[in-house]
Amino acid sequence: MAGHSKWSNIKRKKGAADAKRGKIFTRIIKEINVAIKEGGGADPDTNAALRNAIANAKGVNMPKDNIKRAIKKASGADADNYEEVTFEGYGPNGIAFFIECTTDNTNRTVANIRAIFSKANGSLGKNGSLEFLFERKGVFTLEKEMVKMELEELELELIESGLESMESDDEFITIYTEFSDFGLMAQALEDLNIEVKNSTLERIPLNTIELPLEQAKQILDMEEKFEDDDDVQNVFHNMEVTDELIAAME
């Protein structure tokens, strides 16, 4: 999963610094909306999903006033009515895609997703047709400089809270848990007073496919087109993200 976490962290840094920042804020606002709608109200002390969404908002440096407005609007009678939908399909060279969306117009979203698949010579599949290729994991990203303990000590502290694996580079520590341990890990990190840069439930491929560089670039280009759509929250695929590919895309 090392390539996966490295590429995710690179995208997160780029997104926080470039023109996509507005799109990231939009996705966080939708996350707040869904958390309030499905998680039981606008109090983060009693709504774990909202607490997680607020932490993610802070992780991308969303201004506090924006967060407050998003919570207020999502709690009111004029709140947007979003629905969570997923799509599965194949891109070029047999690469499987799993796309999570939050939308107020399913017909628009279906049309947009199908068009991206078609233009890339891919195909939109039936829901459930590719889900078996991925497993859901809790993924927590921490800024290394914000963690005031050694990695070995941190690992020992988190084992009983569902730690499955942990990776680190010069800037970030990435923690993986089983899907069912997501809430337990979130609480453990909070109890340790460790600020989480980002936490999410991701679909990690059980097996990956390595492509030649130019073909791999086409897949990342397709990934970017999905992510540019305002209705898309997350994009997952089963292509191996190699160090060579990462170097070529930075």
Report on the architecture of this protein:
- With 250 residues, the protein is of the alpha+beta class.
- The chain has 3 domains: 74 residues, Orthogonal Bundle (Arc Repressor Mutant, subunit A), CATH 1.10.10.200; 92 residues, YebC, transcriptional regulation domain (Alpha-Beta Plaits, 2-Layer Sandwich); 70 residues, 2-Layer Sandwich (Alpha-Beta Plaits), CATH 3.30.70.
- It is 46% helix and 22% strand.
- It contains 9 helices and 8 strands.
- Strands 3-1-2-8 form a 4-stranded antiparallel β-sheet. Strands 5-6-4-7 form a 4-stranded antiparallel β-sheet, sandwiched between helices.
- β5 and β6 form a beta hairpin.
- α2 runs antiparallel to α3 and α2 crosses α4.
- The mean pLDDT is 90.
Query: How many distinct domains?
Result: 3
Distance between the termini: 19 Å
Helix content: 40-55%
Looking at how many chains there are and whether they match, the oligomeric state comes to single chain
Number of strands: 8
Give the CATH H-level superfamily of the largest domain: YebC, transcriptional regulation domain
Uncertain spans, ≥5 residues at pLDDT below 50? none
Q: Give, in spatial order, the strands making up the sheet with the most strands.
A: 3-1-2-8
Order of helices and strands: HHHHEEHEEHEEHEHEH
Overall SS class: alpha+beta
Strand content: 15-25%
Which overall shape is indicated by the principal axes computed on the Cα atoms? globular
The CATH top-level class label of the largest domain: Alpha Beta
Largest sheet: 4 strands, antiparallel
Rg over CA atoms: 18 Å
CATH topology of the largest domain: Alpha-Beta Plaits
Number of helices: 9
Mean pLDDT: 90
